[in-house]
Inverse folding.
């Protein structure tokens, strides 16, 4: 699908806005491994029934780890660049709460190009729970919003969400593969229209539509 993005200048480099940008490959493997371990720690803390002594040992170890990571901190708004197989680039915030590669609070979601849109898979554990055994509705909306914005980004149209509508069609379960798809469906001046779905076992559990507004480019 070819989307009319008039006027359609080049996709902007975030450095044009004064943001720090690093390549995806520049994120140390040790940091990626640490992010995964902290995700496991958060899940363990949320569900533990350990006794006081074990809890105190864990707290002390967490405090020691926090101190070890002190010092310089990455700038707020720092961006990461993902280079596509075709040589093009896509950008995201390094600490994005839904898909930031250095944010342990973000689920391990990776959206990849699929035809005219994006597709990804994620498993959400108990720390994303709302009703018993089900994903919190706020996280469902967050996942859809991320997918919608990423689809516009991938189409070369950097946008911010102006309006988001979410239809919760069925409960979305925890601890199972969830498939997310998103695509741009049209454009009108600065408005970009996008749709996305979350599926489990092929059935749509939630869908979202959004009106995005293009970010004005510098110059």
């Amino acid at each position: 699908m070819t989307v009319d993005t008039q006027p359609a200048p080049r996709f902007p480099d975030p450095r044009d806005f004064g943001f720090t940008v690093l390549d995806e490959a520049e994120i140390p493997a040790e940091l990626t491994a640490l992010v995964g371990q902290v995700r496991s720690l958060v899940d363990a803390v949320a569900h533990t029934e350990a006794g006081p002594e074990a809890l105190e040992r864990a707290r002390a170890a967490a405090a020691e780890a926090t101190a070890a990571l002190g010092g310089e901190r990455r700038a707020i708004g720092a961006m990461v660049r993902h280079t596509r197989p075709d040589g093009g680039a896509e950008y995201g915030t390094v600490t994005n709460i839904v898909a930031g590669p250095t944010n342990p609070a973000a689920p391990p979601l990776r959206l990849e190009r699929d035809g005219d849109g994006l597709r990804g898979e994620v498993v959400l554990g108990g720390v994303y729970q709302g009703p018993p055994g089900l994903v919190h509705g706020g996280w469902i909306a967050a996942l859809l919003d991320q997918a919608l914005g990423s689809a516009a980004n991938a189409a070369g149209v950097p946008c911010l969400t102006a309006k988001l509508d979410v239809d919760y069609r069925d409960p979305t379960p925890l601890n199972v593969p969830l498939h997310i798809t998103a695509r741009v469906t049209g454009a009108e001046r600065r408005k970009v229209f996008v749709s996305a779905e979350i599926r489990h076992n092929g059935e749509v559990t939630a869908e979202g539509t959004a009106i995005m507004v293009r970010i004005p480019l510098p110059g």
Helices lie at 29-47, 52-68, 137-154. The chain is about 25% helix and 30% strand. The CA atoms of residues 38 and 65 lie 11 Å apart.
